[in-house]
């Protein structure tokens, strides 16, 4: 979540259990500055979100795309643990706004370094193409 430039994230599932993530950060001249390929296992996605940093407070465990408004958890999450799959957290509903991407087994104890504290409103797992 760099404050400079505009960030795009494109996801293209290539086959079951594999995905391609293209992440381009555009600088002031609009140039392509980063690219990352993901081949993590996308099966059995599961993420646990926590109300406070360091996995404290109320928590919810999600296994599918969820609007956090629907479960009274919007603009609340401050840390998470990814049990499985690759997850994208969005600042706004309908997959809009800033994004935070997290990978299988990843634990993020605080969203503050990502400028993402208390803003997540929608989460979805990357799904393999059928
Ligand atoms: Ca919080």
UniProtKB/TrEMBL annotation:
<dbReference type="InterPro" id="IPR001064">
    <property type="entry name" value="Beta/gamma_crystallin"/>
</dbReference>
<dbReference type="Pfam" id="PF00030">
    <property type="entry name" value="Crystall"/>
</dbReference>
<protein>
    <recommendedName>
        <fullName>Beta/gamma crystallin 'Greek key' domain-containing protein</fullName>
    </recommendedName>
</protein>
<dbReference type="InterPro" id="IPR011024">
    <property type="entry name" value="G_crystallin-like"/>
</dbReference>
<keyword id="KW-0677">Repeat</keyword>
<comment type="similarity">
    <text>Belongs to the beta/gamma-crystallin family.</text>
</comment>
<feature type="domain" description="Beta/gamma crystallin 'Greek key'">
    <location>
        <begin position="46"/>
        <end position="126"/>
    </location>
</feature>
């Amino acid at each position: 979540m760099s404050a400079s430039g505009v960030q795009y994230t494109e996801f293209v599932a290539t086959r079951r259990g594999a995905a391609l993530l293209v992440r381009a950060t555009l600088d002031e001249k609009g140039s392509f500055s980063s690219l990352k390929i993901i081949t993590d296992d996308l099966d059995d996605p599961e993420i646990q979100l926590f109300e406070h940093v360091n996995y404290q407070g109320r928590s919810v465990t999600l296994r599918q795309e969820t609007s956090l408004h629907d479960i009274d958890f919007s603009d609340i999450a401050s840390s998470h643990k990814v049990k499985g799959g690759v997850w994208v957290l969005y600042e706004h509903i309908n997959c809009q706004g800033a994004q935070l991407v997290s990978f299988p087994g990843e634990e993020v104890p605080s969203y503050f370094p990502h400028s993402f504290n208390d803003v997540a409103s929608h989460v979805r797992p990357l799904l393999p193409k059928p």
